[in-house]
Amino acid sequence: MQLTRRSFLKATALGTAGFTMLMQLKASGAVNIRLSACDWSLGARSDPKGFDIAKEIGLDGLEISPTDEVGDTMKIADPAWRQVYKDAAQRTGLVISSVAMGHLNSYPFATDDRAPAWLEQTIEATADFGAKVILLAFFGDGDLLEKKGLLGGGGSLKEKEVDTVVERLIKAAPIAKDAGVIIGLENTLSAEQNMSIINRVNHESVQVYYDIGNSTYNGYDVPAEIHQLDKKICQIHFKDGGFYLGKGKVDMDAVAKAMNDINYEGWIVLETAVQEKDLVGTFRKNAEFARNMF
């Protein structure tokens, strides 16, 4: 928690007791957040206009997604394609918080022979963007669970696919480390199942991209999972089904406490639903809620 001039003056006005309280808050490791949003949630999938929308909302960054068009080489491997995004970021004063490989939901990382090359191309691009996190998606056709709940949770692992994922991550992890990039696994798995994969890969550059909405709706104990994953969480998605943050099923007070407990210092990325056809207004309200949590 950073001490602002205003908070310092308030503590001074309260005297010794106020200053002591402020120091206790600082020592508690309160979260110092930066806010981003998914470009697809802003109606700008694979479109640099997402930076302009994110700036209008008042965010600090944008999570971008490469095109869903597939081939042996992705567009994100093209320096000219990347320059358009870098120019948009510079123009708006925002940064790229992360790069999402959402197309893996249709062309699974575990079974598509092109996936390892796609990941290497994305690692290079992410480093070029100055970003630190890649979202490696495992939903839809790429789900790693045999039996699915509402969003895919609650089942046993597809062992053959998981073996392939582990093998491919072991090869990609040193490349990611050299590039200063973390590969974040986002999926329908429990924290325990994710940790089983993380432990097998056994590399600091492979972590978990945690989604509080997906995990809640899959029936997982989100605060407990945040504590269990701890420093293995590289980034967090905030959403709550079709609700505003704080109005649905996710216990946001418990989420805030758990994030404070582990002293989370990464990005919070909004993937929230649009209300009343007011995209900018919805995201502003959710952004304000997220900031006020901490």
Q: Could you characterize the architecture of this molecule?
A:
It is globular and about 45 Å long. It contains eleven helices and eight strands. Helix 3 packs across helix 11, helix 6 crosses helix 7 and helix 9 runs parallel beside helix 10. The protein folds into two domains: 30 residues, no CATH class; 262 residues, Divalent-metal-dependent TIM barrel enzymes (TIM Barrel), CATH 3.20.20. By secondary structure, the chain is an alpha/beta fold.
Which structural class should the secondary elements be placed in? alpha/beta
Biggest sheet strand order reads 1-8-7-6-5-4-3-2
Strand content: 5-15%
Low-confidence stretches: 1-29
Do you know the CATH architecture of the largest domain? Alpha-Beta Barrel
Order of helices and strands: HHEHEHEHEHEHEHHEHEH
Helix content: 40-55%
- Assembly of the depicted chains: single chain
What is the CATH homology-level superfamily of the largest domain?
Divalent-metal-dependent TIM barrel enzymes
Largest sheet: 8 strands, parallel
Beta strand count: 8
What is the terminal-to-terminal distance?
9 Å
CATH class of the largest domain: Alpha Beta
Apparent shape: globular
Mean pLDDT: 90
